[in-house]
Amino acid sequence: MNRYPLWKNILVVVALVLGLLYTLPNFFGESPAVQVSSVKATVKVDPSLLGRVEDTLQAAGIAHQGLYADQNSIRVRFDSTDTQLKAKDAIEKNLNPVADDASYSVALNLLPSSPQWLTSIHALPMYLGLDLRGGVHFLLQVDMKGALTKRLDSMAADIRTLLRDKNLRHAGIARDGNTLSIRFRDTETRDRVKNVLGTSMPELTLAEQADGADFKLVATLKPEAQQKLQGDSIKQNISTLHNRINELGVAEPVIQQQGADRIVVQLPGVQDTAKAKDILGRTATLEIRMVDDENSQNPAVMEQAANGQPPAGTEYYTERGGHGLLVRKQVVLTGDRLTDAQPGFDGQTHEPAVHLTLDSAGARIFKDITRENVGKRMAILLIEKGKGEVVTAPRINTEIGGGRVQISGRMSTQEASDVALLLRAGSLAAPMDIVEERTIGPSLGADNISKGFHSTLWGFTAIAVFMIAYYLLFGVVSVVALSANLLFLVALLSLMQATLTLPGIAAIALTLGMAIDANVLINERVREELRVGNTPQAAITAGYERAWATILDSNVTTLIAGIALLIFGSGPVRGFAVVHCLGILTSLFSSVVVSRAVINLIYGRRKKLTALSIGQVWKPDSAVAK
Amino acid sequence: MEFFRIRKDIPFMRHALVFNVISLITFLLAVFFLAHKGLHFSVEFTGGTLMEVRYPQAPNLDSLRKKLESDGFSDPQVQNFGSSTDVLIRVPLAKDGDSNKVSAHVLTSLQAVDSANPPELKRVEFVGPQVGKELASDGAMALLLVVIGIVVYLAIRFEWRFAVSAVIANLHDVIIILGCFALFQWEFSLPVLAAILAVLGYSVNESVVVFDRVRETFKKQKKMSTPEVLDHAITSTISRTIITHGCTQMMVTSMLIFGGVALHYFALALTIGICFGIYSSVLVASPLVMWLGVSREQFLPKPKVEKQEAVV
User: Fold this and answer.
1) Strands B187-188 vs B40-41: parallel, antiparallel or unpaired
2) Closest C-alpha to B219, from B305, B295, B303
3) A516 at the B interface (CB within 8 A)?
4) Which one of A330, A479, B182, B294 is CB 3.0 to 4.6 Å from B33, fit for a cystine?
5) Would you call B242 an interface residue with chain A, using a CB distance cutoff of 8 Å?
């Protein structure tokens, strides 16, 4: 008799119910929504904000279809995109009265319109990739070498300060490549410095070297410190990117580390790539350095410098307005010491300006520097993509304390607010380059969905028609099993919230096309057993059992290919591989267990079964007999 | 319905040499085209910028090309894509300068051509040089991993002879697919690579089904010679082979028809893979197994040799 034990039947039913439940949200579609989240660390999203949003909408006479709050954001659902846009403007106006100083990001978004009870059991629609919903994808490469040199430069500055505080005389600190060399006149100082550095900067490896009459101490960053630096740089860059993207107002940005030195940024729904790239790609940092006044006023030296031969220890820059300037290489302060930057106007000249606020350490350094250099000029440089630009080079008139600094000089209001935004969004620990970019328009996304859907639908229909015509009832059962496979696959993808891309949809179609193999194997085996004269019940048992080993073997080889793709694939291939692998696993269950359960249900209890509805079973012997 | 009414085992092995010569010739042709014409790699592999724009009215491609060239883009490819209003533009990696801005610059150039017919940007893909190189090497690694994985698995489940012949038969499929792509200069993109690897796994499973039968027949039919066993195994699985591949091909054909341009080459690679897969995994792999010297003894449970130790 072909009967499944009770637990197996229950397993199949439970699997089907769960599959149905988690597939369900995909049928409800999504409705337009507005998402409000905080941009500043000091501003929290709390219940009072929910009330504020609701009041705003009421005041503007906009009907909404539900307000939802989670930890970081508030979402409001609307019935149409028109109301969504109106609501966005109203909320934006109310929450961010000053456009330049936004506390909240108000973004357009889509919310699944499935009922609440489905959402509460974590049944969500499949997460669509950018090629299906439209948006921008960037792959950014972090320049680790840049991070290292930057770190060494700032360490050189720290060493200088340290040695000056301890009253240890050195004959120059310089960075060549990845090492710092400190020169001394005598070995005694060198040994003392070595001791001092050994305790205060443990991340450096120190080596002694003789260099002509001088004595040198060569410092390199220890490997573990380098590794930590890399990790920190990536982390800092990611958080900086988060800040910058928040300013763009994107609903569900993806910012992830990929590999050792890459960052993936995905901005669904963003179409203005130029702006997005501008904000992401600009790697502006601020540096404050001293101007070499003496040489800057020497026309002969300046001419040489303009031709690429500046005096040692200085660099040649042109100020805005075209004047040449020699700036010392030594960095006094960097953007790391910056806590805020706001656009504004100069109190006296009413020129556009950027107001900077420094942290306490930065404020102290700035105070010391301005006190020691009254009458000299300091240069404020904006470093973008490795190229520096002197924004302004004001003369220091008095000591400046309190950590409040103002940059002004030949800036437009727009420039001032751009510079402020870039500085405020934080500096990057290491420069980054865009190494891959993908932009997909929203219409193309919708197009891709319908193409993928239709391919699967018609392919499935063709297979179903053929299977039923060729195998009759067994064919129907095979189609049921194949449908169950599709159900499980969609449910799993929804449950895991794996990203579904167009190659992913292709993989669903292909997996279904391949999964039917198992049922064909079983049905052919059952026919064969009937052909050699077995009773129907025995034929079912033998057919399923014999086919199982073959099905397993053939799926394992397909799975090996899938896993290789999963390991080495990136981007679209990975999307394909995930679905392919999952599909193989679900097909094993559905084509063997589910189809058997259905067959057992139909035939299992009949004792006097004389024939199976599996299509014509042609027997060579009987043909010969006729 | 019953398509396959086969009375006797078809003597496939009698023609083994013919099948292999045919496949050898196809293979050599594929290698020739690969070497001679090379693959037409997509932007993902070569690096560069690819843009898809849609115009309200069909634009003049030549004037677009000339405008791009005069604006300093070296060797831009401009072609229609799907319809006369959809245009695909490929710009190779610039040797210097900021490649990130290429797409924006191209768009400004295009907009300058005819202000009455402004293009709408549908898709941009930019790939830097190092990413392209990595993709190529990752693809090769994936292929290698699949081959090793399959050989090891089959060697454990069956016998090394089966593993080696299955992999040889199916790798030659891969070369033939690549050869077709080289011959027709179809674009070789990442989804095509995925299709090729999927097909590799899929047609190996074809060989597995036959080998499974071979093993079973060896154990059951003690009187059959090796070629007879192979003939019997192929004949008794041929209906399943054709039906399964037919079903898979129905799905792939549906993709070819409804999937649009994005899935076109993916489906095409699968189609070639499936057709040659049937041929090679059955008619090439089986003779190879035979020539490698498969025999019944390899499948019989090994008689336990009881060691008789001399007790002195």
Assistant:
1) parallel
2) B295
3) yes
4) B182
5) no
Interior/surface letters A554-581, b for 16+ CB within 10 angstroms, e for the rest: bbbbbbbbbbbbbebbbbbbbbbbbbbb
Q: Encoding tokens for residue A367?
A: 């105070």
Buried b / exposed e along A429-450 (16+ C-beta atoms within 10 A): bbbbbbbbbbbbbeebbebbbe
Q: Which two tokens stand for residue B225?
A: 């010679």
Task: Name the more confident of A485 and A201.
Answer: A485
Residue B136 CB partners (closer than 8 Å, separation 6+): B45
| Domains of chain B by residue range | 12-41+131-298, 48-127
Nearest to B181 by CA among B40, B82, B280: B40
The answer to whether residue B144 scores a pLDDT higher than 70 is: yes
Partner-chain residue, chosen from A458, A463, A561, that has the shortest CB–CB distance to B258: A458
Residue A623: is its pLDDT beyond 50? no
Whole-angstrom distance, CA of residue B283 vs CA of residue B281: 6
Distances, alpha carbon A211 to alpha carbons A214, A215, A570, in Å: 5, 6, 50
> Distance (Å) from the C-alpha of residue B227 to the closest C-alpha of chain A?
21
Architecture of the domain whose range is B48-127: 2-Layer Sandwich (3.30)
Please name the residues between 557 and 586 in chain A that touch chain B, using a CB distance below 8 Å.
557-565, 567-573, 576-577, 580
CATH node for B12-41+131-298: 1.20.1640.10
Cβ distance of B198 and A510 shorter than 8 Å: yes
Task: Evaluate if pTM is beyond 0.95.
Answer: no
Instruction: State the burial class of residue A349 (Cβ atoms within 10 Å of its Cβ: 0-12, 13-18, 19+).
Output: exposed
Listed ranges A30-39, A350-359, A549-558, B2-11; the one with the highest mean pLDDT: A549-558
Q: Which residues are CB-contacts of A153 (< 8 A; sequence separation ≥ 6)?
A: A175, A331
